[in-house]
Amino acid sequence: MNDDDLNELIDAFTAECEEFLQSMETNLLAMESAGLKERQAAVKEMFRAAHSIKGAGSMLGFQNVSVAAHTLEDCFVILRDRTDLSALEPTTVSVLLQGVDTLKKITIECVQHSDVTSPDQTENLEAIAQIFAQFQAKYGKSEQPPVPAASQSPAPETLKLIFEHEVPPLFNRLETELSQASEADLAKSVTALNQVYYQLSGLAGMLLLPDFGKVAAPLRDLIDSPDLTLQRLQSEGWAIAQNLQTARQQILEGRAIDIPEISPSPTPPDSPGLPDSPTPPENSPSPTVPPSSTLPVPNSQRPTIRVDLERLTELVNLVGELVINRTNLELQESELRGEVKRIRRSIVDLNQFGGQLREEYDRLSFAEWRGGNGNSGLGKLAAAETEFPMIANGKSSPTHAHFDILEMDRYTEFHSTAAEVIETAQAISHSATKLDTLAMKFERSTDQLRRITEQLRSRVMQLRVVSFSRAVDHLPRAIREMCLTYDKDVNLLLVGRDTKIDESLLDALRDPLIHLVRNAFDHGIEMPEVRKASGKPASGQIEIEARHQGGQTIITVADDGKGIDPEMIRRKIVTKGLATEEQAQEFSIAELYDFLFWPGFSTTEGVSDLSGRGVGLDVVRTNLRTVRGTVKVDSRLGKGTSFIIKLPLLLSITDALMVKTDHNKIAVPLDAVEEILHIKASEVHIAGNQPMLWWREEFIRLVRMQDLLEYSVLPPDAPSPDPLTQEEIPVLVLASTEGMLAVAVERLIGQQEIVVKPLPPPLSKPRGVLGTTILGDGRVVNILDVDDLVGQPVVNSSIAAVSGKVQEMPSSPSQSPQILVVDDSYTIRQLLSLTLTRARYRVVQAKDGVDALEKLQNGLNCSLAIVDIEMPRMDGFELLRSIRSTERFAKIPVAMLTSRSGEKHRQMAMELGANQYFTKPYSEAQLLQAIPKLIHHSII
After folding, report:
1. pLDDT digits (tens, 9 = 90+) for 488-529
2. What's the pLDDT score for residue 763?
3. pLDDT digit string, tens, across residues 560-617
4. DSSP assignment of 235-300, as one string?
5. CB atoms within 10 A of CB 559
6. Is the pLDDT of residue 19 over 60?
7. Sheet of strand 739-744, all strands in order from the earlier edge strand to the far edge
8. How far is CA 23 from the centre of its chain?
9. What is the H or E stretch that residue 677 is in?
C-alpha cells in the first residue's frame, strides 16, 4: 500500500469517526428528553458507533483508538444492561459526553501523530478508563459471555452487524478490481487487491475468526505469484470472491465455515496449437469462474472517490454557463418561430399579388375578345403586347394567328412574370414549411436540453451541498453545558436542519453561530426569576432557522429575551469616544445596532467567560465577509432579538418575474412574490403622504419600484413613466422577514428561469440588489434583494411628480463634493475611488501625507479627507496634525481609514481631531452612510 492510498484511507477513517462521534453526542443529548423506547434505541445506536470506530481503528493500526472505543463500548453495554433507562440521571449523560470528548481527542492525536503514545495520549486513555471504572462502581460489572467462534455456535449479534454492514464494501471492492483488471493496469490491480487482503485478514484476526482468515489466505498467495497473468488472476480471484461470500453467509447463519481449498491453476506449456489458457489437471477440483449472468450481486454501498473542491467549483460554474446558453437558445428558437410566421404572412401577400397579376392579364385578354374590331380594349391589349412582347412558342406564335383568342391562349412576358411570381411564392412557402418543421424540432430539442440541464444542475449541486445540521448539531451540547454552568434554563430549537448549504460555508458559519448563540444566552435570555417577574416562562428559547429565498440562504438566530436597548448603545458610544453626544443623538436605530459589530465594542460592563472581553460580534461580521455574507439585527425591547444572516448560494438557478421600471429590466425572485395584482387608481388610499393598498383585510404600503432603487448612471432624456398615474397599475405584493410591501411597476414582462450571480469581491453588495443575471440576449439584469427593500424607508414621496424627486446628491458632477483619498496602497485608493465615484462624488488621490499636503497647499478644495495612518514620508497622524494646525484646512472633516483597530490608535486619532474612525476591511454601506453627515458637519 503506497502513501497516497494510506492517506486516502486515513481521511475516510477521520470523516467516518467525526460522523460516529457526532451521532453519539446527538443521541446522548436527545436521551434526556426522550421516552424509554427512544432511549433504548439511542443506546443501541451509540453502541454500534463505538464498535465501528473500534473496528476501523484496529484495521488501520490505531490501537489507542481501538482500545478507547472498546472502553466506551463497554460503558454503553453497562448502560444498556445494568441501568434503568427510564430514570436516567443527568450526571450519567454528562460523564458519557466527557467520554465522547476524550475519544475525539484520542482519535485526533492518533491521526496526527501516527498512534504514538504521548503523555497527553496516556492521560486521555486513563481518563476514559476512569469513566468506565465509575460506571462499574456505580452500576456493577457487565455480564459479557465469551464470544464463541462462528464455526462452533451461532454468530452473536455484534458479529452479524459487522458482516452485514462492514464486510460487503470490502467484497464489493474485490469484485470491482477483478472485473476491471487489465493487462496494462495489472500492477495497480494487484496493489488494490493487496489492500483488500490486509483488511480482510485484519478483520479475521480482530474477530478471532481463523477459519475466515484461511478463506482469504489464497488471495495473498495469488497476488504474490511471480508468474501471475490476467486470466489466472480473474479465474482464481472470482473463485476466492465466491468462497468469501459463502463464508460470510455461513457466519451470518451461525454455521461452521466449510469451504473447499482452491488449487492453483497450472501454467500450460507454450504450444502454438493450444489457446493461452490454464488447463486444470484431471481428478482435481477446478475453480468455477462465474459467468457474466451469475456474477455476485454488488452491494448497495457503492465505492466512492475523492474529488478536488476546485474541480467541483469549476463544474458548478460550467453548469451555470450551460443554463445561460440554454436560455439564449430558447430566445433564438422563439425568434426563429417569429420569423417563420412573418415569412408566411409575406408569402400570403406575395400569392395575392401574383393572383392579381393573373387576373389583370385575363381581364385585358377578355376585353380584347369582347371589343372586336377597333375596340378600345384591343388597343389596351395591343399596348400591353407592345410593352410585354409575345413569347415565341408553338402555342402563341404568329403561325397560329388565324386562331381566335378564345381558341388558343396567348402569352406575353407579362403573363410569364406573373407565373414566375406565383412559382417563387410557392417555393418560398415550401421552404417556410421546412423552416417551420425545423423550428418544431429545435423547440423539442430545447425542451429536452432544458430537462437534461435541470437534472445535471440538481446532480451537481448535490455534490457540494450538505445539511445545515452539520453546522448546528454541536450547539445543543454547548447550550446544555452553559445552562448547567450559569443556572439558566434555555431550550434550543433548530428549524430547517435539512436545508442544504454549500460545504465550503460550514467553516465560515461555525464561529458566527457560536458567538450569536453565546450572545443570545448571555445578553438576551434573562435569569429564570427575572423572566417570571416580567410574565415570561422561566425557560427561555433560542431558535435557529435556515431557509432558501431568492437565490440566497437566510439563517435567523432569534431569542425571546430582553432585547437590545438602543439608548444603552448610544451612551456607550459617547463613553468610548466614538462620537460626540450631539452626533450620537442623530444616529438611527439601524446605525446604533451597527456599532455592535465594531471591534472592541461591548455593552457589558463586567468581564466574564461569556462576554465583556471585547470580542464576539465583530468576529461574526468578519467571518461572514469572507464568504460574501451579511448580518443584520432586529430587536424589540422586552420581546427579543433576531440576527439575520444572508449567504449567497454557490449556484442558484431560480425562477424570477421580469418587470420593467424606470427604463430598466429588473428580476424579482418569484418565491418572494406573494401576489400579482392589477389595480385601478381609485383603489389607492392615501395616509398622510403615503399611498396604501387594502390587501387581505389589512393596509400595506404601496411604493414605486424606482423609489426603492438608486442608480449611479445618468437617467435617459425621456422622463420615467410613473406607474401610479396609469389607468391600470401592475402591483407586486412582496413578502419577506421584514413584512409585506406592495410595489408598483411600469410593466410586467413575464416569468423566466435565471442564474443568480453574486457580485465578486472586492465589489460590495449594493443595498436592495442581490446580484445579477445574464439574459439570453446577453444583457445583464439586476436581481432584487426583497428583504432589503421591504425593510428600508422610502425617501422619495410615492405620490410626488417624478421631476420632483428629492435627490441626496447634486445631479451635476461639477457640483458634487470632492473627497481627498490618502493611502499608500494603490489598490485601496482605486477601490475607494470606484466606490465614491459610483456614489456621485469627485475623488482626488494622494499616495501619502506629503503628497496630500502639497495638493491642499496648491489650492485643492475638498469637502472631506479619508486618510490612512501608516504611510511613508508622512503618516496619517502627522497629516491630521498639520491639517488641524493650519487655519485654511482646519475645518476639513477627516476620517481615518486604517487596519489598526486598537483603542490606542483610535484614541490618538480622536485627540488629534479626527471626525470618524473606520477600520479595514471597511463596510462600504457604513462608509457611504457616514460621508453625507461628515460633509454636512463641515458646512455647519
Report:
1. 889 999 998 888 888 777 877 888 888 889 888 988 899 999
2. 66
3. 999 988 888 888 888 887 778 888 888 888 788 888 887 777 777 655 666 544 455 7
4. HHHHHHHHHHHHHHHHHHTTPPP--PPPPPPPPPPP-TTS-SS--PPTTS--PPPPPGGGPPPPPS
5. 25
6. yes
7. 673-680, 728-736, 739-744, 698-704, 690-695, 684-687
8. 25
9. strand 673-680
Instruction: Name the phi and psi angles at 130, rounded to 5.
Output: -65, -35
pLDDT value at 558 more than 90: yes
| Helix boundaries (H) for 372-474 | 376-387, 413-464, 469-472
CA-based nearest residue to 662, from 701, 703, 634, 631: 703
The neighbouring-strand residues paired with 657 are 668, 751
* CA separation, residue 834 to residues 38, 488, 829, 843, 864 (Å): 60, 50, 9, 9, 16
Q: Which helix (H) or strand (E) holds 820?
A: strand 818-822
**Strand arrangement, sheet containing 490-495:** 490-495, 540-549, 552-559, 640-648, 630-636
Q: Which residue has the cell 464498535?
A: 51
Question: Which residues are 558's β-sheet partners?
Answer: 543, 642
- Residue found by looking up cell 417551420 in the block: 436
197-218 confidence digits (pLDDT tens): 777 776 776 677 778 878 888 8
Question: Is residue 627 within 8 Å of residue 508, measured between CB atoms?
Answer: yes
Q: What's this model's pTM, rounded to 2 decimal places?
A: 0.52
559 SS3 class: strand
State the Cα–Cα distance between residues 800 and 448, nearest whole angstrom.
50
Conformational region of residue 612, where left means phi above 0, alpha means psi within -120 to 50, and beta covers everything else:
left
What b/e sequence results for 833-871 when a residue is b if at least 16 CB atoms lie within 10 Å of its CB, and e otherwise? bebbebbbbbbbbbbbbbbbbebbeeebebbbbbbbbeb
290 burial via Cβ count (<10 Å: 0-12, 13-18, 19+): middle
